[in-house]
Write a structure and sequence with these properties.
Elements: E1 10-14, H1 18-36, H2 43-53, H3 58-66, H4 77-85, H5 98-107, E2 111-115, H6 122-125, E3 132-136, E4 144-145, H7 148-154, E5 160-165, E6 175-180, H8 189-218, E7 233-234, H9 239-250
Parallel strand pairs: 1-2, 2-3, 4-7
Antiparallel strand pairs: 3-5, 5-6
Helix pairs in contact: 1-2
């Protein structure tokens, strides 16, 4: 393949900031409580979704201004970059909706970089010329699916991440990079997981820059197929599994 002349257009497809992740956690907990109590209509859940989770929520915008970093970490780095480089930005509840599709088709990107946006449909991830690559916070194919950092700790395994191409299945695309990340154990599971995720994100950002530069240099993304032998797909851990790992961390037995 030849070098790419001119600018390489890269689009980021990523989930909301830490604020939204925290609210989403409360949303899931709230829904779980409603289900346990047998409240089928879920009126309060819908209100919570509309006024606290939605990107268009006015309450959410107000809370962002008044809550200090002591209570919540909110980074405006994406908004700042967009402003500095005059880049287009789309905030949407659904990356697969028609508005997102048209936005990307008009943008005509060469590459999509996905960071925790959920499952992306093929009519979205095939829009960029070189497709989309995904940052997955677990080593695949062994730790596909949800909360891979938790499961790597749970099974006393190496903790690492994968950068892979996106295909029609979940976390099954060709592997570009796999990397193990060292971490310090503490007696607090959730604090440890947050620290691991921060270190992973920093390291992965540097690696993705290298991938993009190499793409521009050689005109392709080097990758290899996953070996499905030993592959696993994980769901969210249940309360018993969370408590078990919390106890292990408390006793420094990982």
């Amino acid at each position: 393949m030849d070098k790419i002349s001119g600018k390489l257009r890269v689009v980021l497809l990523l989930s909301q900031n830490i604020y939204s992740q925290i609210l989403s956690h409360f949303k899931d907990k709230f829904r779980e409580i409603l289900q346990k109590k047998g409240i089928r209509k879920g009126v309060f859940y819908l209100i919570f979704q509309r006024f606290f989770i939605s990107p268009n929520s006015r309450i959410k915008k107000i809370l962002r201004k008044f809550l200090t970093n002591k209570w919540i970490e909110y980074s405006t780095v994406i908004e700042e970059l967009v402003e500095d480089f005059s880049s287009p930005l789309l905030v949407t509840d659904d990356i697969n909706d028609e508005r997102a599709r048209k936005f990307l088709e008009d943008l005509k990107p060469d590459l999509g970089v996905v960071c925790g946006s959920g499952i992306i449909k093929d009519y979205i991830f095939t829009i960029p010329k070189f497709g989309c690559i995904n940052y997955h916070a677990g080593i695949v194919p062994k730790y596909r699916g949800c909360e891979p950092i938790f499961w790597q700790l749970y099974y006393k395994d190496d903790v690492g991440y994968t950068v892979h191409k996106i295909d029609k299945e979940v976390d099954t695309g060709e592997i570009i990079l796999k990397k193990v990340i060292p971490y310090k154990k503490t007696n607090n599971l959730w604090e440890t997981m947050v620290n691991i995720k921060k270190e992973m994100s920093k390291d992965c950002a540097k690696e993705i820059v290298k991938i993009i530069l190499k793409l521009k240099q050689i005109g392709q993304i080097e990758s290899y197929p996953q070996d499905n032998q030993g592959a696993n797909f994980f769901k969210h851990p249940n309360s018993e599994q969370k408590k078990e790992l919390e106890v292990r961390f408390l006793n420094y037995v990982i």
